[in-house]
Structures are given as C-alpha cells and as structure tokens.
Amino acid sequence: MEEHKIDICATEEEYPHKNLIIFLAAFTSFITAFSTSAINVAIPTIANQFAIDAILQNWVLMSFLLTIAVFSVPFGKLSGKFGLKKFFIVGIIVFILGSIGASLAYSAYSLIFFRVIQGIASAMLNVAGFALVTEALPPKERGKGIGITISSVYIGLALAPVLGGILTKNLGWQSIFYVIIPLLFIPLIVALLKVKDEWITCMDDVFDYVGTIVYSAGILLFMYGFTILNDLNGMIITILGIALLAGFTLWELRHKFPVFNVSLFKNTKFSSSALAALISYLATYAVITILSYYFQYIRNWDPQMTGMVLIVTPALMALIAPFSGRLSDKIEPQKLSAIGMGFVTIALFILTFLEESTPLIVIVIAMILQGVGYGIFSSPNTNSIMGSVPRKLTPVASATVSTVRVIGQTMSLGMLTVIFAIVMGSVQIIPEHFPSLMVSLDIAFLISCLLCLAAVIISLVGVKSNVKMDSS
Fold it and tell me: Using an 8 Å Cβ cutoff, are 112 and 46 in contact?
C-alpha cells in the first residue's frame, strides 16, 4: 500500500475525510476518558465488595494507565508502519473485548486483568486518534481539530463521575462497562464503511524490537517502583527502571529506525511542551480521586451526589478546550499553556487547606479555577507538541502526547499511593483512619500545587525557541 501523501497546497476537497476523522477521534476519546474516570467514583463500592485495602484499590485505576504508558511508544511506531485507520479499528475491537471482561469480573485481580486489556486498546486509540487528526486536517485547522478531540475527552471526564455515580448506586459498578459496549460499535461501523483512505507514514521502517523490549521493561519497572517508593524494594526497582530507560535512550540514538525518535527532545518547543504536560498530569490527575475520597469517606456522600459535584472541573475543561485550541492556531501555544497552568496552581493552593469543615463553595471555586485553567492549557500544549515535528513523525508525536499523559496520570496515582502507604499504611479506609486520610490528602494537594508552579515555568521555556510550528 502506498503512503498517503498530502500536498501543503491542497485544497479543501483534498481532505475529504476530515470531519469523519474528527468525529471518530473525538467519539473514541470520549469513550476512553469516560472509562478511565467513571470507575473512580465506584472504587469505594468495589473496595467494599472485594474487601481490598487502600493500596490495591488504587491499582484498579493504575493498571489501566500503566498499560497505556507501556504500549503507547511502540504503538506510535506500529501505527505509522501498518496504517493509522487499521490500528484504530483493531483498538476499538480490543476495547470491546476488554469491556465485556471487566463487566464480568469476579475479583479485584480479574478486574485489574481486564483493565489491562482496556489499557492496551486505549493506547491504540489514543495514538492513532491524534495522529489521524494531524494527518487528515489541513495544517491551519489542526488546532481546531485537536481542540475538539480534547474537548471530547473532557466531556467524557465531566459525565464520568455523574453517570458513574448514578450507575454505581442504582445498577452496580459493572453497569459502567455495560453502557459503553454498544457505543463502541458506532465508531467501528463508521471507520469500516465510511473512511476509505489509509494513512501510512513509515511503511519501510524496520521495527525496533530490542528498543521496544528495553523501553517496555524500563517504563514498567520505573512506574511500578514509583508506586512503592516508600519501600527499599521500590527504590531499587525504580532505579533499575531509570537505568533501562537511559539504556533505551542510548540505543535509540544509534538505531537507524528507532521505535521512538528521542532526538526530538533536542527541539526545545517539543521537549518543554512534553515535560509541561507530564508535570501537569502528575499534579492534577489524582485530584478527582482525592475529592471522591473526601466526599464519600469524610463527608459520607453517596457516589451519585459525589459525581454531581465532581462534574464541575471537567465540564469547564470541555467548554474551554475547543476555544483555546482555535486560539492556539493564532497565538503562541506555550504562552496560553502557561496562563492556564497559573489558574490551576491557584486552585490547588486553595485545596491545600482542605478540612472536614471547609465550606463547599470554597471547594467548588477551586474546582472552577482548575477547570478553566486546564481548559486553557491542554489544547495549546497538545498543538505545540504535534506542530513542532515533521509530518513523518506525527505518529511519534501522538504517542508522546499519549505517553506523557498516562505516565503523569500513573505517577499522580502512584504519588497518592505512596503518601497513603507512608501516612496510613496498608489498611482499609474506615472511620478510625479518617484523620490520617485527611493528612494524606492535604500533603497530596501541597505537592501538586508546587508541581503546577513548575509546569508554568517550563511551559514558558519553549516560547523563545526559533522552531516554527509545522505548516506542512
């Protein structure tokens, strides 16, 4: 199959599938985001049913994200080699199978296994989705397409706590997976019947199996070790993971067809945007979990009520992301990213003082600031990453977007797990441990606030770079 090429002077008619591609990327982004976060409000119910401790219940969340981190990089290369549309379709099918398995899980460990299957599928969809948007849209509309896709992520995140809470309370946590299975057939049918083109960007490249194995082992050990960093074994495993990732970097620099082109990080705009994204997710992803624990354990709310309040932040992200995406086609994206992270820093500073008696209005104000700030940050940051590389490397850039997101998300939950382990230990969260839980949550917010401040500074680093946003 010939490589799909797009002329930089192409007319509107030469992008025949652009609206369909935006729909497919946005729809599947919504589904994967919903699946990621809807389970958050169900975790206390799942923990109670399976009688698992605070550490293991966090692994129900982390297993999904860790899997995406492991597979996104090699999938970025494979999708460009075998075809973005083909990869996208297989990802949907695997996600359906994983969702069926998760809905039938009979233990915490079986649920974690099928969350891993969902994670593999999500890695395929995330990588192929953003790369398809970048390939199928004219360069001047790329920010708009990315903004719509990211907005769909936040719509999924917004509806997840509400619908997840309603479903968990009335139909059981398994129903979270029941509802998404039929929805996945919509993009599957559309992709099979309506999208005729196939986008192949590196068909002749030799796949780097050695690099893939070293990377996968390194990221797995690093991320797992980070979640038990309070233990000596955790420190050893983390250091071993870092050593393997360093070896992976040296190997990739010498390989003719690297699975991940690490030389991209010499590009200041690319590297600063990617690092800012990593830190932002590390700082903020656990916030919804922290607040879910706070509302359900400390304030004794049910999952439905918790979900109704937790909708505030992602709903605002969904509203603002398309506008900030369009704006990033006209204004330096990293300046917008820094402004957005500034709002998020203020929000987390407010939550640092969270107590059992904190007025709900104060918490909601902080959630509003976080939603506005992250809505301003995310689309420009992604546009900066995707637009700072040549066309041949768009699948790699897409894999970077997916990888830094899930590494940050996993590290965020890992940070929370380590704090729990140090402050609380491996105990079930019951009333006698609530004071320790509050201490853990306050420590997590303080660390997150400082990380967001660092993301503001890093976002500004690439502004002075002389690398031009890609226009081809």
Answer: no
